[in-house]
Design a protein that fits this description.
The complex is a heterodimer of chains A (336) and B (303).
Chain A lengths: L3 E12 L2 E13 L4 E5 L6 H8 L8 E10 L2 E2 L5 H7 L4 E4 L13 H12 L4 H14 L5 H5 L8 H13 L5 E5 L7 H18 L2 E6 L2 H7 L2 E6 L2 E7 H6 L4 H8 L50 E4 L2 E3 L21
Parallel strand pairs in A: 3-8, 3-9, 6-7, 7-8
Antiparallel strand pairs in A: 1-2, 1-4, 4-5, 9-10, 10-12, 11-12
Chain B lengths: L18 H12 L1 H18 L1 H4 L37 H37 L1 H16 L2 H12 L3 H11 L1 H15 L3 H8 L4 H12 L1 H24 L11 H9 L6 H29 L7
Helix pairs in contact in B: 1-13, 2-4, 2-13, 4-5, 4-7, 4-8, 4-11, 4-13, 5-8, 6-7, 7-11, 8-11, 9-10, 11-12, 11-13, 12-13
Classes of the chains: A alpha/beta (336), B mainly alpha (303).
């Protein structure tokens, strides 16, 4: 049974300037111990989807207009706020992009972990304190007793993200949503954090929804991938399958815009032309067609549905496998 | 919180949980005016607390045979009455000493009261925004448009003079400063990621406001609070001067000032000494408040 199943989720923001359909018919499911990566450019609806799962969007302006989010046998979208708070941090936890700002600057990190523990477990203060130190040790922080008494500004970015992870995992959630957890960190620290998350996933058997735009990271850790564009899911497949044979031109374009210094000619980037569309004024038909190298006349009029093109591989595109040339050998990312 | 000692065993130094206190000490080292001010404040508090032990006479004991005696250095002074006597022969020093209690009591209680009300209003306004914000901020506008003294006068004229009414009235009219500052701070804090993170671990609105937002605004609160104590002392003295403060049986600085005004030509010491007490106390509080503001905002003094 999946830890989380999202079916045809719609969320929109009603602003003075218009309505932004930030999440437009997103569906996916995650099994225990599995990692699902949600990828896309800035503004593609990745983070909006992640925040929707825990209903963290301020309402208004956000309105959940349809779909369901099933976790633990109930629909989170219809759960009363009171019960929703029991889900947050307890069954489903979340870590954020910028560890510099996601910790409270005026509280010691130990106190913050203690708070998140005591929110969901009735522990005596002393025991919660000991568990907090233990949690810091689990995420590989040296001298956890001393670190627990420090303030966020006394820790490095990587350590702060470790603290966030310790906080998120303190109650042993079944699912961790990681919203670009490594974007604000150095490359070397990024690798350490990803490794740590994989380690903890093995130990605790939790599922991870990883929001990222780093396809290198996706190739390393993801089991399944959901590609989003302009609020819509445009391709969903197993990670190997997706890198092997992307079936939506946008995914291809994303893969081609990655530097590949290890293959001849791969260091030359092939960027996606144009810019992500304005969500207040989406192009007609397939939102990607103005930037698509394979666009046809009908792309401007009909919105393609996300349908299965091969077993376990869905794409929202009018093109069939015969229309798409195979990915050139030099551009293949799989096998990394 | 414990005062931690830095470990020298290679472990990261235990952070000082008294960072604010260190900053205060550092600020004091270069700010001599603040040193003096804190010394004066300390003295004022001691005098207020131990008034019965310090005052040489009963502040209300009248002795008409000794009325309007000058302070000790003038000819005709009465030994045992170092700052002279007033028109009813009461000891000016003792009355000032006892007046300290009222000034401090009113200043601190009214400040606390308005601080609690104002902070609560500011938190709710800034956090929820929407109609609550509209209502509270319009109330604040109305409050500001009203001269506080006039409002206090009207209320006390109706309810009658009482120490607690004075505290209540001053406390309930002083909330606007806090509400506005807290609201502005909360508006900038509420969209910070740690607030979203707090919701993501299951905190409710009240917990976010009290455990996450409030600790982040203590610095401005301390600063406004300090300055407000001085303002409250002046306000109490003004009401006393107008004869609408606490009942006349309780000696207050403002009341002494009003009494002394009538005798300014013949017995200047009544008004001058009580006025000096007001000035010295509020000046010290303001200087201390300035120092605290510098501590709260390091940018204000780093060059």
């Amino acid at each position: 049974m999946p830890v989380l199943e999202v079916n045809d989720l719609h969320a929109e923001f009603r602003l003075d300037t218009g309505t932004v359909r930030a999440v437009n018919g997103v569906s996916f499911s995650v099994e225990p111990g599995q990692t699902l990566a949600v990828v896309g450019e800035s503004g593609s609806g990745k983070t909006a989807t992640a925040l929707s799962i825990l209903r963290l969007h301020p309402t208004p302006p956000c309105v959940y207009t349809g779909g369901e989010i099933v976790a633990g046998g109930r629909d989170l979208l219809t759960l009363p706020e009171r019960e929703m708070r029991q889900v947050r941090g307890n069954e489903i936890a979340m870590i954020f992009q910028d560890p510099m700002t996601s910790l409270n600057p005026v509280k010691t990190v130990g106190a913050q972990i203690v708070e998140s523990l005591r929110r969901h477990r009735s522990l005596p203060r002393g025991e919660a304190r000991a568990r907090a130190v233990e949690a810091l040790r689990e995420v590989g922080i040296a001298h956890p007793e001393a670190r627990a008494g420090q303030y966020p500004h006394q820790l490095s970015g990587g350590m702060r993200q470790r603290v966030m992870i310790a906080m998120a995992l303190a109650c042993r959630p079944k699912l961790l949503i990681a919203d670009e957890p490594t974007t604000a960190l150095d490359v070397t620290v990024q690798a350490q954090i990803m490794e740590l998350m994989a380690d903890l996933q093995d130990r605790f058997g939790m599922a991870i929804v990883l929001i990222t735009h780093d396809l290198g990271v996706v190739a390393q850790v993801a089991d399944k991938v959901l590609v989003m564009y302009a609020g819509r899911p445009v391709e969903a497949a197993g990670a190997d399958d997706l890198f092997e044979r992307p079936r939506m031109p946008y995914t291809r374009a994303l893969l081609e815009s990655m530097p590949r210094p290890d293959v001849p000619g791969g260091a030359v980037l092939d960027p996606i032309r144009g810019a992500p569309p304005n969500l207040l004024d989406l192009p007609s038909g397939c939102a990607f067609h103005p930037r698509c190298g394979f666009a046809r006349p009908e792309c401007a009029s009909t919105v393609p549905a996300l349908e299965e093109k091969a077993p376990g591989h869905a794409a929202a595109c009018v093109l069939t496998d015969d229309d798409l040339p195979g990915t050139s050998e030099g551009r293949r990312v799989s096998g990394t | 919180m414990t005062t931690a000692t830095a470990g020298r065993t290679g472990a990261p130094a235990r952070p000082a949980s008294n960072t604010m206190w260190h900053a205060v000490r550092r600020a004091l080292r270069r700010n001599h005016a603040a040193k003096v001010a804190i010394g004066v404040l300390f003295l004022v508090v001691i005098v207020g607390v131990f008034a019965p032990l310090i005052a040489p006479h009963d502040p209300n004991a009248q002795n008409l045979t000794l009325k309007l005696r000058p302070p000790f250095w003038s000819a005709g002074h009465q030994p045992g009455y170092p700052l002279g006597t007033d028109n009813l022969g009461r000891d000016v020093l003792s009355r000032i000493v006892y007046g300290t209690r009222i000034s401090l009591l009113v200043g601190v209680s009214a400040t606390l009261l308005s601080g609690v009300v104002g902070t609560a209003v500011g938190l709710v306004s800034g956090y929820y925004r929407g109609w609550r914000d509209q209502v509270f901020m319009r109330l604040a506008d109305i409050q500001l448009a009203f001269p506080t003294i006039l409002l206090a006068l009207a209320i006390i004229a109706v309810l009658g003079p009482s120490l607690w009414f004075v505290i209540l009235v001053l406390g309930l009219t002083g909330w606007v400063n806090y509400a506005r500052v807290v609201r502005a701070e909360v508006l900038s804090l509420r969209s910070r990621e740690f607030v979203v993170a707090a919701r993501a671990i299951g905190d409710n609105d009240r917990q976010i406001m009290t455990r996450h937002l409030l600790p982040n605004i203590t610095a401005p609160l301390v600063t406004i609070g300090t300055l407000q104590v001085a303002a409250m002392i002046i306000a109490e003295a003004s009401l006393g001067y107008l004869g609408l403060g606490v009942p006349p049986s309780i000696p207050t600085w403002g009341g002494m000032l009003a009494d002394g005004q009538l005798y300014l030509r013949s017995a200047w010491w009544i008004a001058v000494f009580s006025g000096a007490a007001i000035m010295l106390t509020t000046l010290s509080i303001n200087v201390t408040g300035d120092m605290l503001r510098d501590v709260a905002d390091p940018k204000a003094y780093t060059k």
